[in-house]
Amino acid sequence: MGVVYFHIHTDIDTNEVDSGVVAKDASGRHFQLNLAKFYLSGIVLYKADGSTYTLNNVYILKDMENEVYYADSVPTGNYTSVSFNVGLDAAANAKAPSGYVPSNVLSSTSMWFGSTSEGYIFMNVQGLADTTVAQTGPVNSPFNYLIGTNAMLKNVKMPAMDAAMSVVTNQVAYVHIVADYGKLLSGIDFKTQSNASPYVNAATAMQIDNNIPNMFRYEY
Amino acid sequence: MDKVIKFLLPLALLGLVNCTTYKKQDLYPSQSGSCALDTVKTVSFSKNIIPIFKTNCSYSGCHDDLVKAGSLDLDSADAYTSLMKRGTGYVNTSNPQASLLYSQLLSASQPMPPTGRLSDCDLQLIQVWMQQGAENN
Q1: What ipTM, to 2 d.p.?
Q2: Distance (Å) from the C-alpha of residue A9 to the closest C-alpha of chain B?
Q3: pTM reported for the whole predicted model
Q4: Could B89 and A65 be called an inter-chain contact, meaning their C-beta atoms sit closer than 8 Å?
């Protein structure tokens, strides 16, 4: 067995960003992220022969402050691709954060809508945008997007890696991924679609949810 | 040799060193015939680590201060800050072998540097530097 970690960058287009840093997306829009979190679960590693290894009960809460996340011990071998869910499976989504010890990522009350019927916030994105047409104004228009509910659980199947990820006994291997919030928020009008969740402006939330598979790419 | 034993024995006893990584041939790699670990007790970031980056990583188009491949700038002036940036995971003082930096150096599929694996001596210098607290010394 070897160990697999995820290394996930937070980017706007090709600019790696920290909280509060203004960047320009591929369409030329200026915005900053003040908070950007999402859950990863249902991780599956693929080998070239088509066989898979599923990381059961592995939940990762990606935030802007951390890039490296332990995933699991996995059988040695060369893995050529990975898939994962952005969000939580129905069983996990039906529980409450209070049922977990504080060190468990599922204990985060800030990633919960507040009741088991509403469930967890799969993705929480907040920031400020320049809403001027010319994109020469201040970045002062707030946006706030919450994705959740079982209907918005999104599976992401990454393409084949350029070079297979070799998992070697007693060594650590990293899956290097970039999360591009420019792509996530592509097509969203910061002026007229400034906030959304499954319970408020659900159509906008679904529009963002449908962008999720496009926001991930390998780092290399 | 006595110096090597004096240095390694306490570490091995503390379980900080994987003995298999400290074979004699590793400490005296054939290409250079010697390793800085033979003569220094404390690995220096500026004297021992930066030269490794200069030779193998921070050249133009890679981890230099312009391109910063993977958002990692290993140029002499910025390397420490870049490596130690909170949350990046490049450095892990409690488990150097799990660090992003060390793992990439050993990676079979995406090795860094892509031109060829570092010498065992250089790898050990980086590992020991982390074990010793990854000081900016």
Answers
A1: 0.81
A2: 9
A3: 0.86
A4: no
